[in-house]
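#struct-pred
JK: can someone run the complex with zinc ion? inputs below
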Amino acid sequence: MRHLLFLLFCITSTAIHAQKIGISIFNELNLQTVLVTPVSGQYSLIMGNEEFLLSPNQIVYISKVGDSLRVRDMSSNLGTWKRVSLVGQTGTDVVRINPISPAHPARIYDDNLGFYADFGRLMLVNLVEQNKYIAGVVESESGPSAPLEFYKVQAILARTYALGHIERHQGEGFNLCDAVHCQAYKGKSVKNPDIIKASKETAGLIVVDETEQLIVGAFHANCGGETANSGNVWLKSHNYLVSVTDTYCRNSPSANWELRIPLREWKIFLNEKGVDTTALAITQYNQVLKNREYTYNIGGKQIPLSDIRTHFKLRSSFFSVEVVSNSIRLKGRGYGHGVGLCQDGAINMARRGKSHTEILEHYFSKVRIVPYNTLPQIPQLEDIATVE
Ligand SMILES: [Zn+2]
Ligand SMILES: [Zn+2]
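RT: done, structure tokens with the ligand placed:
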């Protein structure tokens, strides 16, 4: 409850221009001290009943001391507090956070921040307008020079994930963390204005399946010309994550790869999988387009290709095998697990004028793109802060 009250305080202590979402930032660091510097806009530092207006580029240190926070600027000690919040006044406020202990490169964040001590560390929660958060996620997951329609695709998938997991860290006092456990988020989107534009222009949109459930918006770098069935790669199968032919990614740099493995190592691996290799002749094994396979059948065993990919750290499980003297030559296609959206293909579709809807419908079968607030069974952001 104490986190919740704090969160509510942060949300209600500023004018609500748009729905905000609470993200634990630097979540994988055992933070003890950070340096906080306003970059633009106007910030207030709120500690208990005290409010300090920060001047531009004023430096504030916040350190965990026991279960409290010590706050100081360059000239004076601003006291020790249980909770501190940094609240933007203009709606376009940006702040730099520089972890000092442990040291880590600084990042910049939009909107507000809440600070408290918990889990033996200094916790930082970025209370950020949803579309700015989505833009930050898209920037972490895609390159800086893709077309607008591709960024819209990534924004819709990021939002689908975020709203589907909005209660994931609820007991810890925030909605989502900034690590890959939730979605990678490294702060404000700055590399390409189209990323922010894509997030705004798709505001509220998510992807649902035939039963109006939010989809698992899986994606990968390159499918090699044919995406994979979720049920053959993962334990769980989804009827919208089924194999589709993809002609859009086949000329990308990561569409093809090749690797040699000593025959001896290959046989050791097969032995570990229960194959008797003493008198085994390893023959050519081909995976061809439109016939993606999921097991390598040899010596009476069916070895999941994903196991081979993991063991030899291969770019993908879409490969052929041939013996070349004392080694195995793997000729592979694509990069990644192959399930869902192929990023190289989606970028190319966008370059050829396809819309974000056409792209999503190409990679995800029988899905619809809808505003999330039209789906009553999905928790709405306004409700989150009132639920403990
Ligand atoms: Zn998480
Ligand atoms: Zn592809």
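RT: quick notes.
The pocket of zinc ion (ligand 2) is lined by residues 222-223, 246, 249, 342, 344-345 (CB under 6 Å).
The two ends are 6 Å apart (CA to CA).
JK: thanks, will look after standup
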